[in-house]
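Regression test case RT-17, inverse folding.

Input:
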């Protein structure tokens, strides 16, 4: 047979198979736009702003609809009611983790972020219990955060009021908190190993939010056979995991099972306890992946929120002035802020909530999957189907938050100026897979921001009205634009 004819026949078969698979599933799944063979609906989704594209599709197909990312059907849940019904009312069924091929090349099915089933439950239970042993949400962790906040202030003083990019400083602070839990020590802000790890992490977050990575996740074959920024991502991740492996070996050589010093020691003790169990989840490889998850999730999300928060405070000077007035009245200048102050600072609490609501840090959440077949709102969703939950649609709901595109702390204040909770505030997701580090993140945001504002006036290098707060990427993470800021000592 002529090679050209054979190629045409092969491609035709692939196209027909793709069409058949897509059409065969459409009658059972929620409605959605007609997918193209092989490509699916990717031409209808803006890789630079996936969340905006999903909002547009929801207006045509409702709060539960199906899109095809390549040949793979993905069910999208849009709006508070649909998201709540799935993640909370049917939490166990929707607790699986959806496909994230680029990151899966790093995790290799281990860790906590992208695992499902029993492995995820075992790792999450161990992590939460161990973090509680270190006082997660209690005074012992608060002391660490307060110490790091003071170190952050000293580093900012060294800028001598000159314009600077705050990214570096705001990455070091939360990173040192998580490292004090993992390694039992913090790093100097000039430590080269520390700086190298942060550089790789910051670079990887930007890469993960880029349009190219969205394409690679849709067509995983590109990861292995095509050049691109995903290669840098994988190299950075491999280097970071090698650093953690070296730290684990150091801990193994100095381990005292009667006196665990940090998270690694607790894990190594658990490894020793289960070394004779053939199906144990506690292995060196699992520890490396778990540390990588804790490092990434415990550093970058808080760092990016702080960075975005300062940008919003630069732009909205009237908000900053009210926060500083509340700090002066409740805390004063002669002691460090503490978590007990938060209940007496409703405006500051509202500002912190509004920052997280407004920036919409993880617009489409980390992908979920259903752990078994389920009939959901009269639609049939087969086991293993990837689920996208639009956090944007909840955080920017215009009925709960009037003018949701406007930064307004009043969204979380009642008519008397008291802090007002909202069920729609779910920046950490909800249900079974809600962020395990939510308590630590909220503590860090409060203590870091109030300590900075207690000690410095914030000054922009441009007119505040000219500051653009539009994210440069709105893929996996909303990445704020680069900016310069001056920290003027009070």
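Golden output:
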């Amino acid at each position: 047979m002529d090679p050209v004819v054979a190629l045409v026949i092969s491609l035709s078969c692939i196209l027909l198979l793709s069409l058949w698979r897509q059409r065969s599933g459409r009658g059972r799944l929620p409605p959605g736009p007609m997918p193209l063979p092989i490509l699916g609906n990717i031409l209808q989704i803006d890789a630079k702003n996936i969340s905006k594209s999903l909002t547009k599709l929801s207006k045509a197909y409702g709060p539960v609809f199906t899109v095809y990312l390549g040949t793979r059907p993905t069910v999208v849940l849009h709006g508070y009611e649909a998201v709540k019904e799935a993640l909370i009312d049917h939490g166990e069924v929707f607790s699986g983790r959806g496909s994230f091929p680029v990151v899966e090349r790093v995790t290799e099915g281990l860790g906590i972020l992208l695992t499902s089933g029993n492995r995820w439950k075992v790792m999450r239970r161990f992590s939460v219990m161990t973090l509680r042993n270190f006082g997660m949400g209690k005074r012992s962790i608060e002391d660490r955060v307060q110490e790091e906040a003071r170190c952050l202030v000293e580093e900012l003083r060294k800028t001598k009021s000159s314009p600077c990019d705050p990214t570096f400083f705001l990455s070091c602070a939360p990173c040192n908190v998580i490292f004090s839990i993992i390694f039992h020590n913090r790093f100097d802000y000039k430590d080269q190993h520390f700086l190298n790890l942060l550089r790789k992490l910051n670079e990887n977050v930007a890469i993960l939010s880029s349009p190219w990575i969205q394409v690679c996740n849709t067509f995983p074959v590109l990861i292995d056979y095509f050049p691109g920024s995903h290669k840098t991502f994988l190299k950075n991740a491999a280097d970071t995991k090698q650093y953690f492996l070296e730290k684990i070996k150091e801990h193994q050589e100095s381990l005292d099972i009667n006196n665990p010093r940090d998270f690694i020691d607790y894990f190594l003790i658990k490894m020793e306890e289960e070394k004779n169990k053939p199906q144990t989840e506690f292995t060196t490889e699992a520890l490396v992946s778990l540390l990588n998850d804790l490092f990434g999730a415990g550093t970058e999300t808080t760092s990016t929120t702080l960075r975005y928060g300062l940008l919003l405070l630069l732009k909205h000077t009237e908000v900053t002035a009210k926060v500083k007035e509340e700090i002066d009245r409740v805390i004063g200048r002669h002691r460090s802020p503490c978590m007990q102050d938060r209940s007496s600072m409703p405006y500051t609490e509202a500002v912190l909530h509004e920052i997280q609501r407004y920036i919409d840090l993880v617009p489409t959440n980390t992908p979920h999957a259903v752990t078994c077949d389920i009939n959901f709102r009269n639609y049939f969703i087969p086991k293993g189907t990837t689920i996208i939950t639009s956090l944007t649609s909840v955080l920017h709901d215009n009925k709960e938050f009037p003018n949701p595109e406007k930064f307004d702390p009043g969204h979380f204040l009642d008519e008397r100026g008291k802090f007002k909770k909202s069920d729609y505030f779910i920046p950490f997701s909800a249900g079974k897979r809600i962020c395990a580090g939510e308590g630590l993140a909220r503590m860090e945001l409060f203590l870091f921001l109030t300590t900075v504002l207690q000690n410095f006036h914030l000054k922009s290098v441009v007119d505040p009205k000219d500051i653009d707060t539009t994210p440069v990427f709105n893929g996996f993470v909303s990445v704020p634009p680069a900016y310069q800021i001056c920290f003027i000592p009070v």
